Task: structure prediction
Amino acid sequence: TEQDWQKLERLLSYVNGTKEIPLCLEMGNNPVEIVANIDSSHATHGDYRGHTGIYISLGKGAIQAISTKQAINTKSSAETELVAASDGGTPAINVLNIVKCQGIHVKALYIEQDNKSTLSMIQNGRATGPTSRHINIRFFWLNDRVANGEVTMRYVPTEEMTSDLHRMIMQLPGVFEYISRRIYIIPIAQHIQLCIVYKYAVSYFLTVTDQIFNINRVIK
Result:
């Protein structure tokens, strides 16, 4: 369709425009912390459904990033965040199981949220106010994961939410660049600079070491 073609053009335009910005991936120290940073935008689509952004990491860089329209309508931003946290919890737990199957010790799986009302609902074990069946299903599923220790909820200030890149339009100047740096999408020129610095550092170290050995030989 025409809409699909526009999406393809936008995707190709992004790929072509970011050829010099590689993604850096690095696993954290053992035991590993799995972090799922999940955020949402309330009633942002034409049918007033919300949008979910999910950023999953094992240390540095996203091993999985999801940007998707929510499947149901919600009545508040807290409900929208709850739907996002529930939907994002599934791929996060899948990552947890895959990492454990590799024999890697996992410290915890953290789901990060910036909505304190949503966190309160999940941690207190009850929803605030009347909710629909669809909301209750997601709420109790996530609440069970927290209760059995499989998931740990964690508050993160809005300005530190790395998943914002996947749930909102980057309209403010510098926001895209700021979040990109936080999720370790770094221009390749910086990689080259780091490699050059590393190269000269190693060369200097070998030169100094060789001089020390020569001095020792002379002394002997």
